[in-house]
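Researcher: Let's try something more involved. This one mixes different molecule types, so please make sure each is placed in the same coordinate frame as the others.
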Amino acid sequence: MIIRIDPQSAEPLFEQVVFAVKAAVAKGTAKAGEQLPSVRELARELAINPNTVVRAYEVLERDGVIVRRQGAGCFLSGRGSDLAATERRKQLADLMRRTVTEAFHLGFTAADIEKALALGLEQVQFSDKRRQA
Amino acid sequence: MSSPVVTFDGVQRWFGPHVVLKGLTLQVGPGQVYALLGRNAAGKTTALRILLGFLQPHRGRVTVLGNDSRALTPEVRGRIGYVGEDHRLYPTMKVADAIAFEAETRPAFRRAFADKALQRCDLRPAQRIPQLSRGQRAQLCLILAVASNPELLVCDDPALGLDVVMRREFLDALIDLLADTGCAVLFSSHFLTDVERIADRIGILHDGSLLVDSTLDDIKRRVQRCTWLPANGTPLPTGPHVLRASQRRGGHELLLLDAPPDLLAALRAGGELSPPQAPTLEELFLGLTGPDRPGILREPLDELARGAPAGGGA
Amino acid sequence: MAWLLRKDGPWVIGGGIVATLALGGALHEHSGARVFVVGADRLEGAFHTAWITGVVLGSVAACFDEVLGTREFLAQRPLARTALIRARLRALLIVLACSFVLGPIGAWIGFAAFHDGMWHTRLAALPAIYAAYVVALSGAGIGVAAGSLPVPWWQRIVVAAAWFGASFALIDAVSRGYQGAARMAPFVFAHVGAAAVFFAIAAVAARYDADPDRPRAQVLRAIAGVPAAAALAVLWTVPCGEGQARAIDLLQDAYPVVLKRGDEHVLVRATHEPGVWRVCDRDHRSTGERIDGRQPGRGGVRRPMPSWHWLSFGFDAPLWHSGHQSGWSDTTTVLLAADGLVWTRSLADGLRATGRGAELLPFANDSLIGDVGDSVVVIDGATRQPWRYDDAAGHFVPMPLPAGERGEQLGWASLDDKDPDDAALLAQLADPKRAWAWQRRFVRTQHGAYTVRDGALVAVPGLLARVDRGRWARDDALATNQTDPIVIPIELPDDGSPVRFRHELRPRTANEWARAVPAFVLSLCRPPLLQAIGHVTVMPRRGGWLFDRLVADGRRPWLVLGSFVLGAALAWSFARRLRRLGADRAVVRLWSVAIVLLGLPALLVAWAAERPRAYAQHDVAAAPSPRLGSRAAEEVPA
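Model: All components are placed in one shared frame. Result:
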């Protein structure tokens, strides 16, 4: 699993770690049961504060992406998310609203946004298909 | 929440007519990495020296691990690690002597840890201290400070004078420490990229007090930077959301705090606006403490800072 | 201990080596026989080397971490401050102890390698060596105490110099006995005591950090500020005394002298023309009368001034006993130890023990040795019997004195062959070997002076008055107060016949007052406490520079009072300044008392110690809270 971050990006580091793990799961490059690097390994690899990694893993665990086994480490659970469907739907709506707002501020029309969304979906589906192939 | 490891409470300190600290207040929680930033002579070293009991504050007090900094007992000192600004070691010693001296004067010293760390850093015990490079000296100092398993590590500009590789090695050593022990770290630094990687919380010390005392995530979430070229006659925006506005080629460089969409819309309506981005720490630091200060820093922000919705782990 | 050596190793080892070489090497100023067999009478080199070594080692010990810049690197360790200080002082003492032991051993080995006679080595010679070394302790104390003071560099150096000058000069004064010889026990105890005091000061002073922006700890004022002021006060008496001596010399020059004209005595002043005098009246005003053309011959003019001798300040390597070796047998030197053992030393035979008679008995303690006439003579300290060294026999033989006479002194006399009286005496001596000698020694008894010719004592009539007095005659380490140098009573003639002229010299004219006033003013400036002590106690013969002769022996209480009034005025003005700065009452009280008692020097110290900067308070507007802040409690994941 490749986890990369950009310390200078606007996004908080722990969110970048969370996103990287979720992206790996979503793209299918990481399989269920795969072990995540230890906190120390990942902190050293990324040269970031171990607290940040701990926090990211906690968020991932809470979201059901990983499970922690005492003494053995963290493993991918194989589920995209443990959250209830409503909660997930609410998060999706939230995400969409933010994206759409930003896009409008950038001066795009509704048609542009729909087109971009379709393109994004295609890319994700493309990797899904490749995984299935 | 357990009690903080370090508390500065309204600390004032002057040297002759020059008031260096005008009421420094900050807290470092257990396991937290606090980066104290500021320009040269902003008072970072003074603050750390007060913390370690080398200086006494004129007003206010500093509490370290529950003890007043003015009366630190050997027991409390044993729980604090310190890396000085100039990485001072006894120039008459060899590396092995420095380790032995540390082991003899600190009961909690972990010999095995130190030996392993030496190996990793490529420091040979037979090397004489004056023959070490600055980076090696800094590494040795950190190893010495860390090997006693401190509850609080205080580093005064540990990366000063180190090249990029050395800085990264230093960072690695610090990360190891944090991963091993979860000790609290209070350090001052000039190297903001390192700070962005490692700090949980940053304080920007300017003119004797903190301009910023916030978590890095919070800063990234709440502060936005954009360039604005106003159309003729459009007044510069003011108000609690404008942290800083400075003149730029035909327009203004704006630092916005918690900018609401309508403020952005108004700006866009009044001229050309670049897409708002989160500033890097360097941009934030420059923006807040840089020499070009037209004085748009708004006092009402105090209130905002206090009342703002907390952005933490949500 | 191990950690200490690891840290202080460089100066402990380096200092130990240097100190050992210095102290050992310094003993080579004399021959091995003199240092290790007879016992040195004075070890000047060792004395000066020892105190210099001590001061240097002490200051290095105190400032080692400060110079290396590792003070904070050390201070952040879990070591009690007192443990650090104790370790530092202990290291210093260990270095000194090692050099005290190894120095003489090394010196002895050096002597043994190049000199003969070292098998005569006696333990009795060691006290003189260690008595000279003991100043290394007090020197080290001064160095470490001054070096530990949390004040700027220049102040530490000034304080060290003041402590050194004052304590060494005072100890020199109290340990001196008759004729410049020092008493060993008071000397050693005083230096060890001073070392203990200074080590204690260092132990307290080192607990505090220098911070020019805060008032000092009160205990520092008490244990370092006041001693510094006291030392300066002691030294301050020196320029005061010198100034007074100069003023009084000028005053006495201005006083008229008494001229004997026939049976009559008149007060006169010299004019620019030689031999021409101007007569003065009893108020020292010129009457206009001149006495002309009369050369002032011997006995004509009386200058009835008391001998004016200002006891000068200083210290020197102590002299343990006088009269030690004598060499006037062409090939042989005779060495006499303080405890009465005698050796001869010659190129041919090396060092050889000798003594009284064929049994080679030792002499008593405090015997005297000297070259008299053509022989080496020893006066036995117990029997006062003179003995002569018989080169042929290889031992001392007694020389009988007339019944009832006892040898009192091997006294010196100065004889000038240009003086007719002295030439007559010299002719009696018939002592061609010493024709060149200006000063000669004689055996002095109560009633006569003797030289030695052909192995026998020969009385020299008329010489007794010219030979200096015996050392057993009196011990005048404490002399009564000397007379007043300003008001001088004259009674003439002073040969016991009825007094026919009485006058009191004292400032009467404006010119005389102009010269007397500076002496009085300098008296006012002296430390009041010392003035009071000098006013009521007997003036010591040594260390008399400490006290003021103008007020000694109960003279001029108003001058003593005046110095206290001046001190009080200084104290009052300084107290006002301190209160304005915002100092505590205890601070004001301490300095006030110190200034009243010690005067100007204490004011200087107080002024240097209490700077406005330390008391300055800056009104700082309450710092604004951060522009960008988030609550402290939110960021660490629970």
